[in-house]
Amino acid sequence: MPEKKDFNLALEDILKKVYIFSELSDEELVKVKRLVNTKNYKKGTVIFFEGDPGEAVFFVKSGKVKVYKGDDEGREFILHIFDEGDVFAEAVLLGGGTYPATAEAVEDSVVGFIKNEDLESFIKKSPDLAIKIIRIMAARLRDSQEKIKDLALKDTYDRTACMLHKISLDYGQRTSRGIEIDLPVTRQELAALVGTSRETVTRILSQMKKNGIIDIDRQKIIVLDERKLMRCRKD
């Protein structure tokens, strides 16, 4: 019994970190908690595939999850990497349909989910929650538009620099050496975020290291000069 109590307390704490639930009253949080299911996923495990029936909205309780589109040749284009407290798959909440992308655990993760019909019923009683979900969907749309613009207007070097800067802001830890990026992504996954090949990203990272912009310590990337990273231009 004590273990169940600890789990409930942990779930309530994480729900308060989830943007769409962060301003709910304690009474409302208790109601939401009853709707939540959780599941453990090992690193590399697919949570849902693109094209699967969209039956639930998810949030990251712990760990990290990537959402990506794939093509017929097996290549990935990563749309987003979600961290603790982030909501994903909200696009299927209104109107149902299928999941527009695949979700996969980047590291061992615990993921919470609420079935669409349960969340829709709750939203009808909480208009503020509906507004927050709309804001999240609008932010996702802006992110997608930025990615499309970057692919059209920026070369691969600039896209890599911008992505490294964004990742450093989202996941970086400032140390005496610089900003250490605490994100367990492979070169292939970084390439999928940028929209290029692993070989190209590896070559660009080596060039940035040579220019003193970053350092690479095993799998960890350290931003040594944030200003140069933002000014990066191939020429």
Automatic annotation (TrEMBL):
Start and end residues of each HTH crp-type domain: 154-227
SMART domains, per the entry: cNMP, HTH_CRP
CDD domains on file: CAP_ED, HTH_CRP
UniProt GO molecular function: DNA binding; DNA-binding transcription factor activity
GO cellular component, one term: cytosol
Keywords from the UniProt entry: DNA-binding, Transcription, Transcription regulation
UniProt xrefs under SUPFAM superfamilies: cAMP-binding domain-like, Winged helix' DNA-binding domain
PROSITE patterns: CNMP_BINDING_3 (PS50042), HTH_CRP_1 (PS00042), HTH_CRP_2 (PS51063)
Recorded superkingdom: Bacteria
Cyclic nucleotide-binding domain sequence ranges: 20-140
Keyword field contains NAD: no
InterPro entries hit by this protein: cNMP-bd_dom, cNMP-bd_dom_sf, Env_Response_Regulators, HTH_CRP, RmlC-like_jellyroll, Tscrpt_reg_HTH_Crp-type_CS, WH-like_DNA-bd_sf, WH_DNA-bd_sf
PANTHER family assigned: CRP FAMILY TRANSCRIPTIONAL REGULATORY PROTEIN, HTH-TYPE TRANSCRIPTIONAL REGULATOR ARCR
The protein's name: CRP/FNR family transcriptional regulator, anaerobic regulatory protein
Phylogenetic classification of the source organism: Bacteria, Bacillati, Bacillota, Clostridia, Thermosediminibacterales
